[in-house]
Amino acid sequence: MARAMLLPFGGERRVRSAALSALGISRGTRVTELGCGTGSNTRLLVDLGAQVTAIDLSEPMLKRARSKVPGARFLRHDILSYRGPPAERVLLAFVLHEMDAGVRARALEAARENLAPGGLLGVLDFSAGAPFPVDPVFRAYLRVAEPELAREVLAGLPAELAQAGFRVERRRALCLSTAQVLVASC
Ligand SMILES: C[S@@+](CC[C@H](N)C(=O)[O-])C[C@H]1O[C@@H](n2cnc3c(N)ncnc32)[C@H](O)[C@@H]1O
Fold first, then answer.
1. What is the 48 CA–ligand 1 centroid distance (Å)?
2. Ligand 1 site residues, Cβ closer than 6 angstroms
3. What is the pLDDT of residues 28-77, one digit of tens each?
4. Atom of ligand 1 at shortest distance to CA of 99?
5. 35 Cα: distance to centroid of ligand 1 (angstroms)
6. How many domains would you assign to the chain?
7. Domain interval for residue 64
8. What is the CATH number of the domain that holds 25?
9. For 114, phi and psi rounded to 5 degrees?
10. Residue pair 20/36 in contact by the 8 Å Cβ criterion
11. pLDDT digits (tens, 9 = 90+) for 148-173
12. In sequence order, what are the beta bridge partners of 73?
């Protein structure tokens, strides 16, 4: 689905790379990826030289991720209760839109507690603000293909990050402003 959706924007790899470039990853950067899915971001992070610990609750997702990215460490764990070694970067990519507000707050708390002092959180997810006629088409897609919760994150993520104790340092709009990457410190 992600591959098909991101084709008009230059392809999945290009969009994900643009998002990850906002995080300032270099060789040896310790990254904790919360909700890694099949490892599409994980692979790019490893290609950048990061040391990645990637967490997901779904064993089928992890099985695919492990075979796709042998250079990362994958753990089956609930994001909400995961507390690992502090990381210089924590990534939540297309995870928060699947959670209700209470669970999003707990996921952001986990992100904060997994960050090393001076570290940065990256949140890649949907965004409001696309121009006409992209916006109505995008919202129609969300209604059909994503949980109703997805619409809650559209405009609210920066405020939710602030409420969770983060300060948004940078925001980059992606895919004609249907997605965004927020980089935050705490
Ligand atoms: C839409 S996928 C995104 C995957 C990947 N980050 C990406 O950008 O393609 C969301 C992932 O978050 C995982 N997930 C959702 N809630 C979780 C939780 N509480 N603990 C661990 N993983 C969770 C799901 O299993 C799924 O793999």
1. 22
2. 2, 35-37, 40-41, 55-58, 61, 78-80, 93-95, 98
3. 999 999 999 999 999 999 999 999 999 999 999 999 999 999 999 999 99
4. 16
5. 4
6. 1
7. 2-185
8. 3.40.50.150
9. -95, 0
10. no
11. 888 888 879 999 999 999 999 999 99
12. 53
